[in-house]
User: Which sequence fits this backbone?
C-alpha cells in the first residue's frame, strides 16, 4: 500500500538529522510491503486535509524556525482537520514547540503556534543539553524505554491533564522540572528527543506507521509484523546507558 | 616580563616536561591550563611580548590545515609561536605562547567558541575567518549565535586586518563596510557541484532572508551566491583560485591570483576543500608581508596537518586516514575517497566524547550514500559503533556486509585483513578516535607522534 507522508518545511526544519527519522519510516514501511510517497509541504504549497496519512515536522535553527513560524501557524485549520480525521503526526524539537499554543521569548514577545498540543513554551536562560532516557506513557507501550538527545532553551509546560510521551528516567525533559517529556494527543506525538529519535526506538516508528496504515484503510490500527532489530537494540542500549551516566540533572 | 608572569611561566614549563616525561601525551595543554587557571591575563602579556604580534585563524573546517600551511609559508623567515598540535582553546594558546620563548610572531588556530576571548586578550594584527558549518550543536550552539559572537569580537578590533572567506555568505558579511579586508574564494565553474548538499547551512540571504541562488556551489554552501530578491551577492575576490585540476589522492593544482600577481600552485593534498585552506593561508601570509614566491614555496612544501589526511604503510597494505567531525567535512572526505578510487573496505569510527560532540545525530546529515554504493564491506567502530551501523543500514547498506567492532585496534586489524595486499584501507575516525588510532599506529612504528613534528 502507498502511505502518503507530508514533510513540513524540509528545507528549513532539518537540523537534528530529521532525515534519519524519514529514512527509518521509509525502510520499515518497505519491509512490510508498503511504499512511502513523500511530499514536501512548505511555504507556498497548500496542505489539503485528508491528503496525508502521516505528517512530519522537524527542528530548525532559530533563524529558519522564525522564517516559517507564521506560515505554519496559519495552517491551524487544515492541520487540525487532518489529525481529527486520524492522520498520524510526529513533531520533533522546534516542530514540537511550534505545534503548541505558542512561544514566549525572553524579551516577552509571543510567537503564535498551531495549537495542536495543549502546551506553551517559555524561553529559558540556559539550554538543556544532553542524553535522555524516557519510560513511555503511551497506552500502546507502557514502560518501554525511549532513548535520545535533547538540546533546547525552551521550557515546555503541559496543561494540567495533558498526556506526556513519557516520564523522564534521565535527562531534563519538557521543562527540567515536571519529570515528563513530550506530549501525545491521539495519533499526534511531539518530543524534544532527536539523535535522531526513530532509529534507536524503532517501535515508535512502527506505531506511527500502524496509525498511518489505519488512516489509509479506515480500519483500526494493528501491530506490524516484527523485524530483526538487533542493531537497533544495541544502539538503544548504548544510548540508554549514556543517558543514565551523563544525562542532564534537573535542578 | 613581570615577576609574576615569569614565575607562572617556569612553573608551567616544569609541568609540561613532567607530563612528557611520564608519557602522558605531548604535554601540550597542561602548562597552559595551569597558567590559564591561575591568571587568564597572562595570555595578554604573553601575546604583547611578541614583536611581530599575533595572527589568528578560525573556521569550522580547515583551521588546523590552514594554520599549518601558513606556518609552512612563514616559518623560513620568522620565528613562530604556532599551536601545531591543534590545542586551540585559550589554555592551548597560552601553552603555545609560554613554550615559544623567542618567537617573533604568534600564528594560532583558535576554536570558534574561544575566538572572541582570545581576540580580546591577544589583540591580533590579523584574523583569518574561513567558514561556518553546522558542527557540534550541543557544544557550539547554532551557527547564527557563533557568527554574532564573531561579529561583536571583530567590531572591537577595527585596526586588525580581516581575512574572510568570500564564498561563505555569513562569514563574508562580517567584513561588510570595513576597511583593511582581504576576501578569498574559488572561481572555477568547471569545479562546481551539481547542487547544495543535504544539510546545507546559510542558504538564506543574510540581508533579506530570501533563498540564495548559486552560479556555482563548491563545498557545502560555499560558492558564488546571489540573492534574486535584494541583489546581495558574493563580493569581489582579492585572492582567488582558478583553473583547478585534481590529481586524485596525490593532490590538486590551481592558479593563485593575488594583488601581487598570479602563480601556479601544486598542492600535495587532494580536494577542493584544501584549495580553500590554501587560499586562506596564502591570504593571511600575504597580509602579514610574505611575498608570492614564499607563498607558493610554502604551499608546495606542505604535507598534511596532523591526522587530517595521512597515508602510511601497514605491511603490504596501505592505510588512508581521514578525520571526520561534522557533515560538511565528512562529505569532503567521502569525495576524496571517490576521487582516489579508495573504499572497497572502509573502517568508520565514531566516538562521542566532548571533543567529538556528545550528540551523534550529525552522522545522519552526512551524505554517506556514495560511500555505501562503492564499499563492499564496512567495519564500524568506536564507542557509538552501533549508531553508525544503523546509519548505514537505513542508508541502504546490507546489514550482512556490516561488521560492528567497537574496539579500535581490533577494527583496524579487521579492516586490514579485509583489504587485499597492495590495496589501501580507508579509515574515517572522529577526533578522539583519530587520536587513539594515531597512538596505535605510532606504537606499531607506522607514524611518528605529533609532538615530534610532522614529516
Assistant:
Amino acid at each position: 500500500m502507498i502511505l502518503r507522508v507530508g514533510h513540513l518545511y524540509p528545507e528549513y526544519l532539518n537540523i537534528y538529522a530529521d532525515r534519519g527519522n524519514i529514512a527509518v519510516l521509509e525502510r520499515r514501511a518497505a519491509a512490510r510491503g508498503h511504499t512511502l510517497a513523500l511530499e514536501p509541504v512548505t511555504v507556498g504549497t497548500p496542505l489539503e486535509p485528508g491528503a496525508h496519512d502521516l505528517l512530519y515536522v522537524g527542528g530548525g535553527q532559530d533563524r529558519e524556525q522564525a522564517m516559517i513560524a507564521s506560515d505554519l501557524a496559519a495552517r491551524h485549520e487544515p492541520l487540525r482537520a487532518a489529525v481529527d480525521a486520524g492522520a498520524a503526526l510526529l513533531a520533533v524539537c522546534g516542530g514540537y514547540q511550534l505545534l503548541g499554543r505558542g512561544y514566549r521569548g525572553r524579551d516577552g514577545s509571543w510567537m503564535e503556534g498551531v495549537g495542536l498540543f495543549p502546551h506553551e513554551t517559555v524561553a529559558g536562560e540556559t539550554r538543556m543539553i544532553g542524553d535522555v532516557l524516557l519510560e513511555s506513557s503511551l497506552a500502546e507501550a507502557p514502560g518501554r524505554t525511549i532513548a535520545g538527545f535533547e538540546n533546547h532553551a525552551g521550557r515546555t509546560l503541559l496543561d494540567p491533564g495533558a498526556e506526556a510521551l513519557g516520564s523522564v528516567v534521565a535527562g531534563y525533559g519538557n521543562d527540567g522540572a515536571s519529570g515528563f517529556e513530550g506530549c501525545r494527543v491521539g495519533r499526534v506525538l511531539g518530543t524534544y528527543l532527536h539523535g535522531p529519535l526513530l532509529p534507536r526506538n524503532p517501535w515508535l516508528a512502527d506505531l506511527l506507521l500502524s496509525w498511518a496504515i489505519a488512516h489509509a484503510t479506515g480500519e483500526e490500527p494493528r501491530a506490524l509484523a516484527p523485524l530483526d532489530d538487533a542493531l537497533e537494540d544495541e544502539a538503544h542500549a548504548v544510548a540508554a546507558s549514556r543517558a543514565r551516566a551523563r544525562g542532564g540533572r534537573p535542578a | 616580563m613581570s615577576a609574576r608572569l615569569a614565575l607562572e611561566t617556569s612553573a608551567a614549563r616544569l609541568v609540561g616536561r613532567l607530563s612528557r616525561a611520564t608519557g602522558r601525551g605531548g604535554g601540550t595543554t597542561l602548562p597552559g591550563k595551569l597558567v590559564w587557571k591561575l591568571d587568564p591575563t597572562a595570555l595578554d602579556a604573553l601575546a604583547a611580548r611578541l614583536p611581530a604580534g599575533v595572527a589568528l585563524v578560525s573556521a569550522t573546517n580547515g583551521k588546523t590545515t590552514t594554520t599549518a600551511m601558513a606556518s609552512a609559508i612563514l616559518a623560513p623567515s620568522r620565528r613562530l609561536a604556532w599551536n601545531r598540535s591543534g590545542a586551540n582553546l585559550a589554555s592551548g594558546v597560552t601553552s603555545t605562547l609560554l613554550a615559544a620563548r623567542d618567537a617573533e610572531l604568534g600564528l594560532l588556530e583558535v576554536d570558534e567558541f574561544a575566538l572572541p576571548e582570545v581576540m580580546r586578550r591577544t589583540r591580533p594584527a590579523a584574523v583569518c575567518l574561513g567558514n561556518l558549518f553546522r558542527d557540534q550543536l550541543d557544544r557550539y550552539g547554532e551557527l547564527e549565535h557563533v557568527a554574532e559572537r564573531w561579529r561583536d569580537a571583530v567590531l572591537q578590533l577595527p585596526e586588525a586586518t580581516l581575512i574572510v572567506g568570500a564564498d561563505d555568505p555569513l562569514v563574508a558579511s562580517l567584513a561588510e563596510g570595513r576597511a583593511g579586508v582581504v576576501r578569498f574564494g574559488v572561481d572555477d565553474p568547471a569545479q562546481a557541484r551539481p547542487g547544495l548538499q543535504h544539510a546545507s547551512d546559510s542558504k538564506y540571504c543574510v540581508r533579506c532572508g530570501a533563498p540564495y541562488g548559486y552560479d556555482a556551489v563548491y563545498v557545502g554552501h560555499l560558492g558564488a551566491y546571489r540573492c534574486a530578491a535584494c541583489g546581495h551577492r558574493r563580493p569581489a575576490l582579492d585572492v582567488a583560485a582558478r583553473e583547478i585540476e585534481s590529481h586524485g589522492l596525490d593532490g590538486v593544482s590551481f592558479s593563485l591570483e593575488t594583488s601581487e600577481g598570479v602563480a601556479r600552485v601544486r598542492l600535495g593534498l587532494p580536494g577542493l576543500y584544501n584549495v580553500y585552506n590554501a587560499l586562506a593561508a596564502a591570504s593571511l601570509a600575504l597580509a602579514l608581508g610574505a611575498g608570492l614566491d614564499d607563498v607558493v614555496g610554502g604551499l608546495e612544501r606542505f604535507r598534511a596537518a596532523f591526522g587530517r589526511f595521512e597515508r602510511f604503510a601497514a605491511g603490504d597494505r596501505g592505510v588512508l586516514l581521514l578525520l571526520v567531525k561534522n557533515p560538511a567535512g565528512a562529505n569532503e572526505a567521502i569525495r576524496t575517497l571517490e576521487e582516489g578510487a579508495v573504499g572497497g573496505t572502509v573502517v568508520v569510527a565514531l566516538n562521542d566524547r566532548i571533543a567529538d560532540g556528545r550528540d551523534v545525530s550529525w552522522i545522519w546529515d552526512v551524505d554517506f550514500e556514495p560511500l555505501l554504493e562503492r564499499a563492499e564491506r564496512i567495519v564500524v567502530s568506536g564507542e557509538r559503533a552501533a549508531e553508525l551501523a544503523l546509519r548505514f543500514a537505513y542508508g541502504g547498506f546490507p546489514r550482512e556486509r556490516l561488521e560492528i567492532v567497537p574496539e579500535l585496534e581490533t577494527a583496524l586489524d579487521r579492516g586490514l585483513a579485509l583489504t587485499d595486499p597492495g590495496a589501501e584501507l580507508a579509515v574515517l575516525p572522529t577526533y578522539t578516535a583519530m587520536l587513539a588510532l594515531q597512538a596505535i599506529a605510532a606504537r606499531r612504528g607506522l607514524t611518528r607522534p605529533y609532538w615530534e613534528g610532522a614529516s
